[in-house]
Specification:
- By secondary structure, the protein is α/β, with parallel strands linked by helices.
- The protein has helices at about 60, 65-80, 100-115, 135-145, 155-160, 160-175, 185-190, 255-270, 285-300, 390-400, 415-430; strands spanning about 5-10, 15, 25, 45, 50-55, 80-85, 90-95, 120-125, 150-155, 180-185, 200-210, 220-225, 235-245, 275-280, 310-320, 330, 335, 345-350, 360-365, 375-380.
- It has two domains: about 45-175, Rossmann fold (3-Layer(aba) Sandwich), CATH 3.40.50.2300; about 180-430, 2-Layer Sandwich (Nucleotidyltransferase, domain 5), CATH 3.30.420.10.
- The two termini are about 40 Å apart.
- InterPro entries: Piwi, Piwi_ago-like, RNaseH-like_sf, RNaseH_sf.
- One of its GO terms (biological process) is regulatory ncRNA-mediated gene silencing.
């Protein structure tokens, strides 16, 4: 064990909606979790047109639906989210076998959209159990029909805990353009030396997901996400593409970044003056190659706008390493290691980090199970000239703005969202009706063809449908 000194960063003050009894708070609990019992979400969405469909389940399970709808609606109201008490059409009950047939499933979802006069905002899907047809459901809804879906399981409906209903409400709000929590002190207040209200900043995250080890033909899937608001910087939209099998460098980063810059210009009204780019899943041997090629792609995307050269910070995020941190306690004359995990906000930037380069370990979450794995952040390029403390505080504070839960997460949200979006892109390639070939191909006569991902529907591509 190597002995070293670390620091524990203080949690940021969080801001909630103005309609609740508690409008702001600092999470001081040991695990940094906070409660929304007396608070509203920062920005509640209005879900007027929604429907519910059930796949499988017993008649007894079907009888849970009215109570579930009632509790979900009242919990949304308590959180400042408007969810109509009644769906636009009566709940539909289908057999789970429908998920095995993508053609009939598409027709059924199309009819639901038609019945709602083409402006259905949300489809809640209750399933008897986890089913591989989930992949088809998501692909059809988000690419063919243009529907945001929220899936849940009957076993959770039978228990129907307060936490489950609240988590479901948070996910629905985020998917439909709402915002669950934001930082009380905006980023320009926290780092005035670099950020300002007048000069917007775009946070980007990128991740490449590869097929499983025994698959030697499926394409890799890349996702790039970018924040679309400033100074809150907590709403992210995504772009996903398939690319050459097992290629780590992102192939069409210039095209995807160009599209995201275009969307940012529409939303914020001006181009970002600074870009903070978080890249997940890169090993140390590929740092130079990834930095060179992907920074070039970012520069190419910016060339579409004459004279536009945003200051960029390129950070690699690593979770797959073997470094673990333990708190050392002194008890009288003896010293031993605590059996508790290190507290959220623990940062280490000496002794076990690179002697010359800009890197640090940050454990922003509370490990509930097993030993906490700190995230290794490696700043490969920093045109914004951040000080160590500034970038550590920035990343730590961003970890409190993740939309799906009321606690800080272990990975900076742009990288986390890129990971979720890449997983969704991988789902689009999985067909439940595809039959695995029994024969083994020893030689490949033609080069691998990269199957393109289906195009997202216009009605969902500006939303956080992947979260």
């Amino acid at each position: 064990m190597t002995q070293l000194s670390g620091r524990v960063l203080l949690p940021p003050r969080l801001k909630f909606g103005s309609g609740g009894r508690i409008t702001d708070m600092t999470p001081h609990r040991f695990d940094r979790q906070w409660s929304l019992l007396d608070s509203h979400v920062t920005d509640g969405s209005k879900i007027k047109n929604w429907a519910l469909i059930s796949f499988g389940g017993t008649p007894e399970q079907h009888s849970y639906i009215p109570k579930f709808v009632n509790q979900l609606s009242s919990r949304c109201e308590q959180l400042g989210i408007l969810l109509n008490k009644k769906p636009v059409i009566s709940p539909l009950f289908e057999r789970i076998q429908l998920l095995n047939n993508p053609g009939i499933l598409e027709s059924k979802l199309g009819k639901i959209q038609e019945a709602a006069a083409g402006n259905l905002q949300l489809l809640i899907c209750v399933m008897e159990r986890r089913h591989r047809g989930y992949a088809d459901l998501k692909r059809i809804a988000e690419t063919s029909i243009g529907l945001v879906t929220q899936c849940c399981l009957y076993p959770n409906l039978s228990k129907l805990t307060v936490q489950f209903v609240a988590n479901l409400a948070l996910k629905m709000n985020a998917k439909l353009g709402g915002c669950n929590v934001s930082l009380y002190n905006s980023l320009p207040c926290q780092i005035p030396r670099i950020f300002s209200d007048e000069e917007p900043v775009m946070f980007m995250g990128a991740d490449v997901t590869h097929p499983h080890p025994l698959d030697d033909s499926s394409p890799s899937v890349v996702a790039v996400v970018a924040s679309m608001n400033w100074p809150a910087a907590n709403k992210y939209i995504s772009r996903m593409r398939s690319q050459t099998h097992r290629k780590e460098i992102i192939e069409h980063l210039d095209v995807m970044t160009g599209e995201l810059l275009e969307e940012f210009l529409k939303e914020v009204g001006k181009l970002p003056g600074r870009i903070i780019f978080f890249r997940d899943g890169v090993s140390e041997t590929q740092f130079d190659k990834v930095l060179k090629e992907e920074m070039h792609a970012l520069r190419v995307a910016c060339l579409r706008y004459p004279g536009y050269k945003p200051l960029t910070t390129f950070v690699v995020v690593q979770k797959r390493h073997h470094t673990r941190l333990f708190h050392r306690e002194k008890n009288g004359g003896s010293t031993h290691y605590s059996d508790q995990n290190i507290p959220p906000g623990t940062v280490v930037d000496t002794v076990i980090t690179h002697p010359r380069e800009f890197d640090f370990y940050l454990c922003s979450h509370w490990g509930t199970k097993g030993t906490s794995r700190p995230t290794h952040y490696h700043v490969l390029l920093d045109e914004n000239r951040f000080q160590s403390d500034e970038v550590q505080q920035l990343i730590h504070n961003l970890c409190y703005t993740f939309v799906r839960c009321t606690r800080p997460v272990s990975l900076v949200p742009p990288a986390y969202y890129a990971h979720l979006a890449a997983y969704r892109g991988r789902l689009y390639l999985e067909k439940s009706d595809s039959v695995a070939t029994s024969c083994t191909t020893l030689y490949r006569s033609t080069p691998l063809q990269t199957t393109p991902l289906p195009k997202l529907s216009d009605s969902v591509k500006r939303l956080m449908f992947y979260c």
